[in-house]
Design goal:
Oligomer: single chain
Strand order of the largest sheet: 3-4-5-6-7
């Protein structure tokens, strides 16, 4: 992983980045970025992650970096691909988005958080307000860039209907691997200060004793209702048919980009899907996994063959997600404070692993 910038110009109330690094975007010399990437490539790697908190926090600088990476891409002995984090306004900058793809960007993590405008306004995430979030996600995908997103429940404007609303948004957006979480107040953030001053911060002792998922007293529901709603939302999001529908929908959009066919020849593709089939068959979650495979494999093989490797990566990582989801479903890890982070880490691991998919488009 590499980093090109620190800091973010936005003011999201729950985020600790502006507390740690400030709102002024500080940048690394473009030449240094290129040298570091070249070093990684020389070591044999062709997958990179730029760990910037907002890669396009300074759009002009981001453009310079991407142009330099595009030039490096042309000189490289083999293609390299990368992923990073940005804000949704990447979709509004067509030139920057095209540069991102041309430079090797094949996925991006975006903090969408919630489709509910009142919750976005509450948390000062104004960059997501007054936008067609579904349309902008689709615009990024149709430029060949896969979208992975964070989503949060538990804002003051979130009632019991938010869980179904979030799930519907993710399904409609065709985002295979969302990272769901419950809002928490990190020390030093504006949210932590607001919760503390309003008497809604759960004391550490009570938090530990009750094994809560959050240290905030919700406004429109109880902590228990928030936690149960979160669990039900996770189960719904990773139900096989809904997951398969999102994967197929995403691949259909990514398939719009002109380019050569997948590196895989047809016999290799069939062999790879057969390997996944056998791998699934011996997994404890085989029924759920095979249900998703039965929908995804035919669609990819007959309609989107150039997306075969991207589909295979999503199938591989679905197994890892199912493992953590099933632990939550069976309560194998109990009602413990470690439960939610374990599930989040599972989804995060899968999202990061699949994020820089390798199809050549």
């Amino acid at each position: 992983s590499r980093q090109t910038t620190r800091g973010c110009p936005f003011r999201c109330e729950f985020c600790d980045i502006i507390t740690l690094y400030g709102r002024t975007v500080r940048v690394k010399p473009v030449s240094q970025v290129v040298d570091e990437v070249r070093t990684v490539l020389d070591l044999g790697w062709d997958r990179l992650m730029f760990v910037d908190d907002n890669f396009i926090g300074d759009p002009r600088y981001a453009s310079e970096v991407l142009q330099a990476l595009m030039a490096l891409q042309k000189r490289a002995t083999r293609p390299f691909y990368f992923t990073t984090q940005t804000t949704i306004n990447l979709a509004q900058n067509t030139r920057l988005l095209d540069l991102y793809y041309a430079a090797g960007g094949r996925s991006v993590f975006i903090g969408i958080e919630t489709p509910r405008t009142s919750s976005l306004q509450e948390t000062l995430k104004f960059q997501n307000v007054r936008r067609d979030l579904l349309g902008e996600v689709e615009r990024i995908q149709r430029r060949g860039v896969a979208v992975y997103s964070g989503l949060i429940v538990g804002f003051d404007h979130d009632d019991a209907g938010i869980f179904e609303e979030q799930a519907k948004f993710i399904n409609d957006a065709k985002i295979p691997f969302p990272l769901p979480s419950i809002l928490g107040a990190l020390p030093g953030t504006p949210l932590h200060k607001r919760m503390e001053s309003s008497g809604r911060l759960i004391p550490q002792k009570e938090f530990n004793a009750n094994a809560y998922f959050t240290n905030i007293v919700p406004k429109e529901m109880t902590v228990q209702e928030l936690e149960q709603g979160y669990r039900d939302m996770v189960f719904a999001l990773y139900e096989p048919k809904r997951f398969a529908d999102r994967v197929i929908g995403e691949l259909a959009r990514l398939n719009d980009v002109d380019g050569k066919l997948s590196n895989y020849r047809l016999p290799v593709v069939w062999a790879a899907f057969l390997w996944v089939l056998l791998w699934y068959a011996f997994d404890p979650n085989r029924l759920k996994l095979l249900s998703a495979l039965r929908v995804i494999a035919p669609a990819v093989l007959w309609r989107y063959p150039r997306m075969a490797d991207a589909a295979l990566q999503r199938l591989v990582n679905y197994r890892h997600v199912c493992r953590f989801v099933s632990m939550l479903e069976r309560q194998d890890i109990g009602a413990s404070k470690g439960q939610l982070p374990n599930v989040e880490r599972g989804v995060t691991k899968a999202s990061e692993a699949v994020s820089a998919h390798s199809f050549d488009a």
